[in-house]
């Protein structure tokens, strides 16, 4: 069964061009119009091959679709249903007979997109770990070449060097679950360990995660959150070209800009970016720090999501007072039953991150 979401575009000629697409029908957006121009506040965004249904509706809600011809990029389509196997921005209008004169509605826009993969890197690190600055610089290089990167820094404790103030229970669980051999360690898409050079300073091989960044996938994730005081609400939207029933959703809360001293074994290594930075590096800036797992750290099962069906999942939580609310962000992942990552997304708190 298809569910339709409606977007209405009010026209000066007394008609409405109504667009419906597969998805949640709970959100209706009305476009306003004055006598001079169509005021487009938003436009519809759909997956490739997702059907968009056009209707011509009068101000009295009478349906005149059967009397209209619909055009997409100036080409008439058969009937009133449109889908595209390729991505792009499509201009849509209707032509109809108004009192004996062929009249066109104003143009509205439909964007068809293909989901792009954000490579997911779990960074196992510690403030006590003198070799860990090298994974920070390698992540910086990856981000310098692609925006399609999602990072979670998971701090752990050491039985030899003491505790890490940023370690959390969920992080220690993940370290044991994925059999992390030591620090620093990177895991890509929860599927493979991030390899590093055998020569000093043992930088991680940036081509490995970049091979995944920006490639096409079937599944897309949107994030919208709102923080009022210490009360945080998070909405995660998921849509896929394929059935993703029995897949899992993982949602993390992260914090950037935490200043803590960082052990540095590379202070005497000229080849390292951390050369002569001291040991420890005072007030080292720790970013992407896992603060809280909003779901089970391995994910909660997503049920009954068929192909091209949008699902919205909501969470509410209280932010501890010692977190810097201005530096918080959300990471969400859809993962397979074997925990490998299908796609990931990130967003700052109070940001509405649409499908990409």
Explain what you see.
- This protein is mostly beta strands and 356 residues long.
- It is built from three helices and 27 strands.
- Strand 13, helix 1 and strand 14 form a beta-alpha-beta unit.
- The radius of gyration is 25 Å and the shape is elongated.
Count all strands and give the number: 27
Instruction: Please indicate the percent range of residues in DSSP E strands (runs of 2 or more).
Output: 35-45%
Order of helices and strands: EEEEEEEEEEEEEHEHEEHEEEEEEEEEEE
- As laid out across the biggest beta sheet, the strand order is 4-3-1-2-6-9
Terminal-residue CA separation: 26 Å
Low-confidence stretches: 1-14, 22-42
Structural class: mainly beta
Number of helices: 3
> Largest sheet, if any?
6 strands, mixed
Q: Which value, in Å, is the CA radius of gyration?
A: 25 Å
Global shape: elongated
Helix content: under 10%
Q: Can you give the mean pLDDT? A: 87
Short description:
With 356 residues, the chain is mainly β. It has helices at residues 133-145, 169-177, 207-210, and strands spanning 4-10, 15-22, 29-33, 38-39, 44-47, 52-58, 69-72, 75-76, 81-82, 88-98, 101-104, 108-113, 119-125, 149-155, 185-188, 192-193, 219-228, 231-240, 248-255, 258-262, 281-286, 289-293, 300-301, 311-318, 328-335, 341-348, 352-353. The chain is built from three helices and 27 strands.
Task: Walk me through the topology.
Blueprint lengths: L3 E7 L4 E8 L6 E5 L4 E2 L4 E4 L4 E7 L10 E4 L2 E2 L4 E2 L5 E11 L2 E4 L3 E6 L5 E7 L7 H13 L3 E7 L13 H9 L7 E4 L3 E2 L13 H4 L8 E10 L2 E10 L7 E8 L2 E5 L18 E6 L2 E5 L6 E2 L9 E8 L9 E8 L5 E8 L3 E2 L3
Parallel strand pairs: 1-3, 5-12, 13-14
Antiparallel strand pairs: 1-2, 2-6, 3-4, 6-9, 7-8, 7-10, 10-11, 10-12, 13-15, 15-16, 17-18, 17-27, 18-24, 19-22, 19-23, 19-25, 20-21, 25-26
């Amino acid at each position: 069964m298809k569910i339709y979401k409606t977007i209405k575009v009010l026209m000066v000629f007394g008609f409405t061009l109504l667009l419906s697409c597969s998805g949640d029908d709970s959100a209706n957006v009305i476009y306003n119009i004055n006598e001079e121009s169509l005021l487009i506040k938003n436009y519809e965004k759909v997956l490739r091959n997702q059907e968009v249904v056009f209707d011509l509706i009068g101000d009295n809600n009478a349906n005149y679709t059967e009397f209209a011809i619909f055009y997409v990029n100036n080409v008439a389509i058969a009937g009133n249903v449109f889908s595209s196997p390729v991505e792009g921005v499509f201009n849509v209008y209707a032509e109809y007979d108004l009192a004996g004169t062929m009249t066109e509605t104003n143009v509205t826009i439909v964007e068809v997109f293909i989901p792009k993969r954000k490579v997911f890197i779990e960074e196992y690190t510690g403030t006590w770990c003198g070799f860990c600055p090298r994974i920070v610089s390698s992540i910086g290089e990856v981000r310098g070449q692609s925006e399609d990167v999602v990072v979670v820094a998971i701090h752990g404790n050491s039985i030899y060097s003491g505790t890490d103030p940023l370690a959390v229970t969920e992080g220690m669980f993940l370290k044991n679950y994925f059999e992390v051999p030591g620090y620093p360690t990177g895991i890509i898409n929860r599927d493979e360990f991030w390899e590093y050079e055998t020569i000093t300073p043992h930088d991680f091989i940036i081509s490995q995660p970049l091979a995944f960044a920006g490639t096409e996938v079937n599944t897309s994730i949107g994030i919208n959150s709102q923080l009022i005081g210490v009360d945080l609400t998070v909405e995660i939207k998921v849509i896929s070209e394929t059935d993703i029933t029995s897949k899992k959703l993982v949602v993390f809360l992260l914090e950037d800009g935490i200043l803590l001293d960082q052990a540095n074994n590379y202070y005497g290594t000229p080849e390292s970016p951390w050369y002569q930075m001291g040991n420890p590096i005072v007030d080292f800036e720790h970013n992407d720090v896992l603060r809280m797992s909003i779901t089970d750290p391995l994910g909660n099962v997503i049920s009954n999501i068929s192909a091209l069906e949008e699902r919205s999942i909501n969470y509410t939580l209280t932010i501890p007072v010692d977190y810097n609310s201005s530096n918080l962000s959300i990471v969400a992942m859809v993962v397979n039953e074997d925990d490998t990552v299908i796609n990931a997304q990130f967003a700052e708190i109070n940001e509405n991150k649409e499908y990409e």
